[in-house]
Amino acid sequence: MRHLLSTKDLSRDEAVHVLDVTEDMAATQLREVKKLPTLRGKTVVNLFFEDSTRTRISFEAAAKRLSADVISFAAKGSSVSKGESLQDTAQTLEAIGADVIVLRHPASGAPAVLAESGWIAASVLNAGDGTHEHPTQALLDAFTLRRRIHGDGSRGRGLDGVRVLVVGDILHSRVARSNLWLLTTLGAEVTLVGPPTLMPFGIGDWPATVSYDLDAAIAEVRPDAIMMLRVQRERMSDAFFPSAREYSTLWGLSATRFAALPETCVVMHPGPMNRGFEIASVAADSPRSTVLEQVTAGVSTRMAALYLTATGAGA
Length: 315
Ligand code: CP
What we know:
α5 (about 135-150) crosses α11. The longest helix has 21 residues, at about 290-310. By secondary structure, the chain is α/β, with parallel strands linked by helices. It has helices at about 10-30, 55-65, 85-95, 110-115, 135-150, 175-185, 215-220, 245-250, 255-260, 280-285, 290-310; strands spanning about 45-50, 70-75, 100-105, 125-130, 165, 190-195, 210, 225-230, 265-270. It folds into two domains: about 10-135 and about 295-310, 3-Layer(aba) Sandwich (Rossmann fold); about 135-290, 3-Layer(aba) Sandwich (Rossmann fold). It has a five-stranded parallel sheet with strand order 7-6-5-8-9, with helices on both faces. It has a four-stranded parallel sheet with strand order 2-1-3-4, sandwiched between helices. About 45% of the residues are buried. About 40% of the residues lie in helices and about 15% in strands. Bound molecules: phosphoric acid mono(formamide)ester (CP). Phosphoric acid mono(formamide)ester binds near residues 53, 54, 55 and 128.
């Protein structure tokens, strides 16, 4: 695997292999010697044109745990503000020695352009591009869910027949898209729930059931997992429609809705969360919440992604 741009590109065997390598990486993190020599001599550049806490820091931790040198680049405060292009920025970073570029960018497709343009020879990992994809987020979500469902017997398995509700601002969510492609490739049944105004055009062609009624979806689907999404107000124009109160009342995971979920249903959120808005604290902090497990899995997942792309191993 040279680049990681999308989960839509992954076959089931490839996806299961990435999850199994993530299991290997997670196992090393439980042992005393946490640092592996795998990427010694390689340089990983985190090239972030949008804000991030989890993705940027866990890519940095992952690269360091594989013994790579890490350069963190934020567009704010760089020559990007003087008009430098993505091509010139990436070529500058490669001239400094980048072997891998981890790119977060507001434009959908920017990582694919960087990977396929021939501007650079480095591997490119998509750390979130516009509303398009966030593949390592979906991989860490699938890893977390597979562990919750199959435990120590996870290796080699998909998520066949697992029922997942993905709830909220589907329109702007790259997390929803990457999860939809990956979860269905792994055999899960996905229902997308949210306001009609926050559903993308053409959603009827996606491999998912669509619902606008969260209470009905919970009752009908009896989900094994519910994944709440952040409402991305920064990607909306001034009118936030529906209103915050309407959104929270109809599509938020309130304490009442949390109580209506099956007792075994796992509660997921990619973060950052808007507590009390799309998710109540009683749900976010419950033992059934995987929010912090997802963050921990992010390091092992990104170790696997860096290893597979930087060394060209497997998958
Ligand atoms: N889930 C996620 O991408 O979080 P950050 O924006 O903090 O990286």
